UniProtKB/TrEMBL annotation:
Name of the protein: Capsid maturation protease
């Protein structure tokens, strides 16, 4: 098998572990008594914590085998100086506290929401969303730490980030980047990305090339991962990184590709709708804007005149006075005129 195939199979095994743990977690959360959330969830934790600990151990114990296989696929004969102690990564949360303490938090989430006036059904839905996020992330993190440890004892200095499974736009733009082992592996809750030890450059593989990944998706999946407007802009030639990164500074944004329902997201915000992408008034029109990339260091900032007419608003660099439109407003303004859409995408820094 190729290094990519080895990495994919490694991920599939771990994903099956996670999916089984999620099933157990869902069944146990369903037993929570709405009238005694804290007490009843504490009872269920007695069953969940050992299962979650075992899943962490199972994810970590495969690291040495994975490293040997993925390096062999690249023509490298590994010479490990030690082996990973998987038990040290089990029963502990990513932040160092006992796993049981972290897994109690969904009850706190639900009770806090109820205290803020959210109805019990939605509060419990939010509690379960927090629980699923926690168990998925903790097993994945145990596996990742084990992989990094296995790399270190084999003298591997670099890794390539590879996207697998169902991913999000933020991860896709990082796909294929090469990192030093000492650099932290940035991930969000429920992140599916994996390390591929980089004895050779694999950035041309479909799993590590952002544009190739985008093109491999159906139109429906492109819309889900990048939003409809974002995906449409990319199909017109917009740079994926510009489209995705623009959402960091978008007014009133909830990121694309969120893995909780709208009701759960609203519950986690205490019943408020803030966080949704919102319009603002610009020159008498309601449009979507972003502050991302509008300084003299950003492509959009340069094209919008930050160097010539920019202002300093407490930051280090001058910012463009002209608001940067989001793809949603650009495509709405262009209508069916593709040439106009391309002109605006270029003007606002989405096309180089």
């Amino acid at each position: 098998m190729s290094a990519e195939q080895v990495a994919r199979e490694h991920h599939r095994r771990r994903r099956r572990l996670v999916d089984r743990l999620v099933t157990v977690s869902r069944q146990l959360w369903a037993r929570v008594d709405p009238d005694a959330i804290a007490r009843s969830w504490t009872t269920q934790l007695a069953d969940l914590v050992p299962v979650a600990t075992a899943a962490q151990y199972a994810a970590a114990i495969t690291a040495d085998t994975y490293l040997d296989a993925v390096l062999a696929a690249q023509g490298v004969t590994p010479a490990p100086r030690a082996t990973v102690v998987a038990a040290a990564l089990a029963g502990v949360a990513s932040d160092g506290r006992p796993l049981a303490s972290l897994l109690y938090q969904p009850a706190v989430t639900a009770l806090t929401a109820i205290g803020d006036g959210v109805d019990t059904r939605r509060a419990l839905a939010g509690g379960y969303a927090a629980l699923e996020t926690a168990v998925r992330t903790q097993v994945a993190d145990a596996g990742r730490v084990a992989d990094v440890t296995a790399m270190a004892v084999r003298g591997v200095d670099d890794y390539v980030r590879m996207v697998v499974g169902t991913t999000c736009g933020r991860c896709v733009v990082l796909a294929g980047r090469r990192y030093k082992l000492s650099e932290a592996f940035d991930r969000h809750p429920c992140c599916d990305c994996v390390h591929v030890p980089a004895a050779e450059d694999t950035v041309d593989a479909i799993a590590t090339n952002p544009r190739a990944w985008f093109d491999s998706l159906s139109a429906e999946e492109q819309d889900r991962q990048f939003t409809k407007a974002g995906a449409a802009a990319i199909r017109l030639g917009a740079d994926i990184s510009q489209v995705v990164n623009a959402r960091r500074g978008a007014y009133g944004l909830t990121p694309a590709g969120a893995r909780i329902t709208a009701d759960e997201a609203r519950m986690l915000r205490g019943g408020r709708d803030r966080g949704q992408l919102a319009t603002r008034a610009v020159y008498g029109r309601q449009v979507y804007t972003t502050t991302e990339g509008i300084t003299t260091r950003g492509l959009a900032g340069v094209r919008l005149g930050a160097r010539e007419r920019g202002v300093k608003d407490g930051g280090r660099y001058r910012e463009a006075r002209t608001p940067r439109l989001m793809p949603e407003s650009i495509l709405a303004a262009a209508g069916d005129d593709q040439a106009e859409a391309l002109r605006l995408l270029k003007r606002f820094g989405y096309i180089r």
